[in-house]
Design goal:
- The chain is an alpha/beta fold.
- The chain has a single domain, classed as 3-Layer(aba) Sandwich (Rossmann fold), CATH 3.40.50.300.
- It is built from 9 helices and 10 strands.
- The strands form 2 sheets. Strands 6-7-8-3-9-10 form a 6-stranded mixed β-sheet, with helices on both faces. The protein has a 4-stranded antiparallel β-sheet with strand order 2-1-4-5.
- α3 packs across α4.
- The protein is globular, with a radius of gyration of 18 Å.
- It holds the Pfam family ABC_tran.
- Keywords: ATP-binding, Hydrolase, Nucleotide-binding.
- Its EC number is 3.6.3.25.
- This is Sulfate-transporting ATPase.
Length: 246
């Protein structure tokens, strides 16, 4: 399968502290790739390097065919990004956010108008199109933010804790949107601290203290660690358990 992300011994140091310690993995086109780890494990630092927002200290990586050292601006044009902390301007309306981010991503005005109207209808926000985003419920904000992140039809979308704070029903709806994006050929690279969401991924990578300590499908990881859930897998790995494939 076509690889859209490639990492080889990717490392990030801050002085004497190693935040990301020689991680290696590939991600295939259209894959939903979960990037898991406790706070401070290094996953956000790793994601920032892959998004072209931070230079690695050493190692190699390509995203959408572009080098993370030399072609950061090209990477940014071929990816979408959604952060839990900041994804939309709350003092702009739904329509204004779509128009603004469409322009930032280089979509022409005619296409922004066309896709924007389709998006508003698809999200059921026709009556709220001119409402300030700050007035929307959190679940609607999150779904709109994801839709804006893939508005320009990128090869890859990076989602950093995208469902934090939303109710279980909205989380399920959000994952339906992720599946639709993946079925359309968009690769989804997602961090989450909800271990049940790891079950929705094709494969998951688990980081502990800056290192990737496990990488496989949720089913294979549960078998390898004799676990009934990804919560149990994560707990065992955090305690230094070794994989058992016998």
């Amino acid at each position: 399968m076509e690889k859209v992300i490639m990492c080889r011994n990717l490392t990030k140091r801050f002085g004497g502290f190693v935040a990301v310690d020689g991680i290696s993995f590939d991600v295939a086109k259209g894959e939903i790739f979960g990037f898991l780890g406790a706070n401070g494990a290094g996953k956000t630092t790793a994601m920032r390097m892959l998004c072209g927002l931070s230079f690695p200290s050493s190692g190699e990586a390509e995203v959408a065919g572009y080098d993370v050292y030399k072609q950061q601006e090209k990477i940014k044009k071929h990816i979408g990004y959604m952060s839990q902390k900041f994804s939309l301007y709350e003092n702009l309306s739904v329509s204004e956010n779509i128009e603004f981010f469409g322009g930032v991503y280089g979509v022409n005005k005619k296409e922004i108008n066309k896709r924007g109207q389709e998006l508003i209808r698809a999200l059921g926000l026709t009556q709220e199109a001119n409402k300030m985003v700050g007035e929307l419920p959190l679940g609607w904000k999150q779904k709109l933010a994801f839709s804006v992140a893939i508005f320009h039809q990128p090869k890859i979308v990076f989602l950093d804790e995208p469902t934090g704070g939303v109710d279980p029903v909205t989380r399920r709806q959000f994952w339906d949107m992720i599946y639709s994006a993946a079925n359309a050929g968009i690769t989804v690279f997602v961090t989450t601290h909800y271990m049940d969401e790891a079950e929705y991924c094709n494969r998951v990578s688990i980081m502990v203290d800056g290192k990737v300590v496990a990488l496989d499908s949720p089913t294979n990881l549960k078998l390898a660690y004799n676990a009934n859930s990804m919560d149990e897998v994560f707990y065992q790995l955090a305690r230094g358990a070794k994989r058992n494939d016998n």
